[in-house]
Amino acid sequence: MLTRITTRSAARAISRAAYSTSTSTPPPFPAAQPAEPNANLLSPPPASDAPFKETHFGFRTVAEDMKESLVGGVFSSVAASYDVMNDAMSLGIHRLWKDHFITSLDPRGLSTSDPEVIERDGGGGLNVIDMAGGTGDIAQRILDNARLKHADRSVRVTVMDINADMLQEGKRRARQSIYHGTNQLKFEQANAEELAHVPDNTVDLYTIAFGIRNCTHIDRVLSEAHRVLKPGGAFACLEFGKVGNPVLSTLYSQYSFNVIPTLGHLIAGDRESYQYLVESIERFPSQPAFAQMMRDAGFRVAGKQGWEDLTGGIASIWRGVKV
Predict the structure, then answer these.
(1) Which residues have CB under 8 Å from 116's CB, separation 6+?
(2) How far is residue 219's CA from residue 296's CA, in Å, rounded to a whole number?
(3) Which tens digit of pLDDT belongs to each residue from 252-306?
(4) DSSP letter string over 60-119?
């Protein structure tokens, strides 16, 4: 039975059932049993008589104000092995998905008639936020696309992530790139649900890859993305989706629940974080439901159906424009 986490009984409930699953949203077959949880992922909130709201953390139900710290614990745990994690969850195909994600967007500097700017930078600048992009792999793909395809060094990407450990990993990788020390790439700790420090109508492109499903309030993330984008600015999301083919869906579900947590234990010594990541995919809205959430936030969604499936829907891309 799904464990109900309340502010008064959290400590007692956690000791009884550290990682229980929902009967209303079960995995398609019995999931592998997780290892003993890390204490920092399951620390209860302080006792309080104040009313609270609930949300999901994988298949668990938790208080809303717990989810951010729980997700933070997961990504702090996997930061150093982030690519290994994605390789495990996508059979290594995530690199191709990310390449296609950026190629299809083809980001480059805005047009300009200033010959000095063209001579110096190759374009008129493009202000990009890559949200939940801690390790910087999407940001570097954006910059590489502009530089290698368009000889454009005017694109500027701010990598934002709520997790300091992910950002540190991104900064480490950036020091190995040609963008280190330039104004083209910077890192900033920020919450996607509240970007008060970013003015309205100032961003040309907002990307988020494999991050939005971990946010507590997806609608707030979309609303903030819409606010900070300029009119005509683009929102693009790459995320795990729902597989349409029944055979492929069954095979991928079996791999996800039976293999991925075990790989997490063997490769990173962390079964629980990988178990959560698999469950978070199951809880993320379907492709049409997320496209509707984008419309509700004010975006004009691109394409007839509103998204593009990759590898049969294991992952999907959604694009929208602020009008």
Answers:
(1) none
(2) 9
(3) 899 888 888 888 788 777 788 788 888 889 889 999 999 999 999 999 999 888 9
(4) EEEEHHHHHHHHHHHHHHHGGGHHHHHHHHHTTTHHHHHHHHHHHH---PPP---HHHHH
DSSP assignment of 258-318: HTHHHHIIIIIS-HHHHHHHHHHHHHSPPHHHHHHHHHHTTEEE-SSSS-EEEGGGTEEEE
Identify the band that residue 10 occupies on the pLDDT scale cut at 50, 70 and 90: very low
Under a CB-based contact definition with an 8 Å cutoff, are residues 268 and 78 in contact?
A: yes
| Structure-derived torsion over alpha carbons of residues 299, 302, 303, 306, reported in degrees to the nearest 10 | -50
| Total residue length of the chain | 323
Helix, strand or coil for residue 147?
A: helix
Query: Residue 129 pairs with which residues in a beta bridge?
Result: 158, 206
pLDDT of res. 247: 95
Question: pTM of the entire structure?
Answer: 0.77
Residue from 58, 65, 59 nearest 44 by CA:
65
CA 272, CA 219: separation in Å to the nearest integer? 27
Cα(183)–Cα(197) distance, integer angstroms? 19
Across 24-28, 56-60, 156-160, 294-298, least confident range: 24-28
Q: Look-up: residue for tokens 């178990």? A: 275
Classify burial at 148, counting beta carbons within 10 Å of its beta carbon; exposed 0-12, middle 13-18, buried 19 or more. Answer: exposed
Contact 150, 161 (CB under 8 A): no
Give the phi and the psi of residue 247 in degrees, each rounded to 5: -65, -50
Q: How far apart are the first and last CA of the chain?
A: 45
